[in-house]
Amino acid sequence: MHTVNVTAADKAERYREVLPQIECVIADETDLVANLANTAAVLKATFGWFWVGFYLIDRRRNELVLGPFQGPLACTRIGFGKGVCGQAWERGETVVVEDVNRHPGHIACSSLSQSEIVVPLFDADGQCFGVLDIDDDKLAQFDDTDAAYLAQLARMLTQAHARQAV
């Protein structure tokens, strides 16, 4: 059993402490779902965000399907280009939303969610296979620091996904 230890108060420093620990947790595990589940748990425990989870692409139905997460009940399926998750998938880029109530097309899975960041996950061939979705119950909780470090995390998860495919 792994124990994650983060002591820093500064957000960037917290990322610098936790990302190598997540990397150790997922390094020897080839199952993507297990790695996503542990990653969601570590991020939720480290940062205390309202909701942390993953949506994986169902190519047959052209939609995102709920994957491992930490937090309250969530939307189960999200269409391509719909909501912040679907927009990040469609654009192939991270989307940061300071106020979800002002974001066009936002899907309110919970009325408590106030800000959101969604980071697409790509496989070794550059195809998006899912998204990391994080919501908080406070406005403007995500910024360029989060986008940069979560992109680094997404690359680690891509490597783990590639190991599963072998």
TrEMBL record:
<dbReference type="InterPro" id="IPR029016">
    <property type="entry name" value="GAF-like_dom_sf"/>
</dbReference>
<comment type="similarity">
    <text>Belongs to the free Met sulfoxide reductase family.</text>
</comment>
<protein>
    <submittedName>
        <fullName>GAF domain-containing protein</fullName>
    </submittedName>
</protein>
<dbReference type="GO" id="GO:0033745">
    <property type="term" value="F:L-methionine-(R)-S-oxide reductase activity"/>
</dbReference>
<dbReference type="InterPro" id="IPR051330">
    <property type="entry name" value="Phosphatase_reg/MetRdx"/>
</dbReference>
<dbReference type="GO" id="GO:0005829">
    <property type="term" value="C:cytosol"/>
</dbReference>
<feature type="domain" description="GAF">
    <location>
        <begin position="31"/>
        <end position="166"/>
    </location>
</feature>
<dbReference type="Pfam" id="PF13185">
    <property type="entry name" value="GAF_2"/>
</dbReference>
<dbReference type="InterPro" id="IPR003018">
    <property type="entry name" value="GAF"/>
</dbReference>
